[in-house]
């Protein structure tokens, strides 16, 4: 055939193919489909096995170390600790287990099981306070939240705190999303209801303790209806007064009332003094009158007895008695 001819300028070497390159060569001419450059499947598998054997530094010890690291990571996520002021709620596939985890070390099967921690300390939610105090479980709201309408149509600024604890951790975690806000809203709603039924003066000073007890009962009822899992322990009214915009006028009214009370007390004291003096003088006059009456009666009685004795003598001896009386009168 023509390509087997070794002679002539157009000839090819013995190793050349009809396309002008040796099988398996890397010449620049076009490659024949299915020619010598096609990879061998067995060679590919051998090279992959060799690369896999040499691709892990350290060989089997590196594999063992990786496995141990995974075991350690799993163990760290499976062991947890509950503090003295906490309880733990374990979840298995997202569902809470019936028993609670108390303080101490505990074990769970991570990631099938997880734990949620709930504090058991007393919480304080402050409503209507202008300033927030930093601290563990204390939350505050703006001063405007304490503005309420009383039963006599006065605006009252009430600042109070609600103290509560978690008595059902499962309900607390899963029944309501924002638990502290729910406590705040329930307490604020209860306070508005109670304040709206009472005059402002009761809220300012006269019946704060009664108002606090009524607010606590209503707040408990609201939170129980939502299944929040908390127990309201105390409601404390810290301050109650008029809004800041009218505080000066309110103070003037209070001072006027205090002056009224003071003047009334002074008037009563003066009246008591006058009455005491008058009663003393009346008693003295009564005693003088009694003494005078007694003296006059005694004198009249003596004169009557003297007259009766003279009359008896006159009856027995009229002439002699008449002369004796005449002589006594002349003397």
Summarize the structure in words.
With 331 residues, the chain is of the alpha+beta class. The protein folds into 3 domains: 52-118, no CATH class; 123-242, Tetrahydropterin Synthase, Chain A (2-Layer Sandwich), CATH 3.30.479.30; 263-331. The chain is built from 8 helices and 10 strands. It has helices spanning 41-55, 60-78, 169-174, 179-195, 200-206, 208-226, 247-316, 318-330; strands spanning 79-82, 86-92, 95-101, 104-107, 113-119, 123-127, 138-139, 147-149, 155-166, 230-241. Strands 6, 7, 8, 9 and 10 form a 5-stranded mixed β-sheet that branches. The chain has a 3-stranded antiparallel β-sheet with strand order 3-2-5. It has a two-stranded antiparallel sheet with strand order 1-4. α4 packs across α6 and α7 (247-316) crosses α8. The longest helix has 70 residues, at 247-316. The N and C termini lie far apart (213 Å). 14% of the residues are buried.
Kindly list the characteristics that best describe this protein:
3 domains, disordered N terminus, Tetrahydropterin Synthase, Chain A, 3-stranded antiparallel sheet, 5-stranded mixed sheet, single chain, alpha+beta, 10 strands, 19% strand
């Amino acid at each position: 055939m023509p390509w087997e001819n070794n002679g002539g300028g157009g000839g090819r070497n013995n190793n050349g193919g009809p396309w002008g390159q040796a099988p398996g060569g890397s010449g620049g001419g076009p490659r024949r489909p299915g020619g010598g450059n096609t990879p061998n499947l067995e060679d590919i598998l051998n090279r992959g096995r060799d690369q896999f054997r040499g691709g892990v530094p350290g060989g089997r010890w590196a594999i063992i170390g990786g496995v141990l690291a995974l075991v350690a990571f799993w163990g760290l996520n499976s062991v947890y600790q509950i503090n003295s002021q906490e309880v733990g709620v374990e979840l298995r596939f997202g569902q809470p287990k019936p028993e609670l985890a108390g303080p101490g070390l505990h074990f769970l099967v991570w990631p099938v099981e997880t734990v949620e921690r709930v504090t058991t300390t007393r919480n304080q939610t402050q409503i209507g306070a202008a300033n927030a105090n930093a601290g563990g479980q204390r939350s505050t709201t703006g001063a405007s939240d304490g503005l309420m309408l009383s039963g006599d149509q006065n605006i009252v600024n009430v600042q109070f705190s609600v103290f509560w604890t978690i008595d059902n951790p499962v309900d607390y975690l899963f029944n309501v999303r924002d638990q502290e806000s729910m406590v705040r809203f329930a307490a604020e709603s209860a306070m508005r209801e109670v304040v709206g039924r009472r005059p402002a003066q009761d809220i300012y000073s006269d019946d704060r303790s009664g108002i606090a007890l009524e607010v606590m009962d209503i707040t408990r009822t609201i939170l129980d209806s939502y299944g929040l899992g908390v127990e309201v322990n105390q409601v404390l009214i810290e301050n109650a007064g008029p809004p800041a915009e009218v505080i000066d006028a309110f103070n003037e009214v209070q001072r006027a009332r205090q002056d009224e009370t003071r003047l009334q007390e002074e008037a009563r004291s003066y009246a008591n003094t006058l009455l005491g003096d008058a009663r003393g003088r009346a008693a003295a006059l009564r005693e003088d009158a009694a003494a005078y009456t007694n003296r006059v009666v005694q004198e009249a009685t003596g004169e009557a007895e003297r007259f009766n004795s003279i009359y008896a003598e006159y009856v027995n001896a009229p002439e002699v008695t008449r002369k004796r009386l005449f002589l006594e009168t002349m003397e």
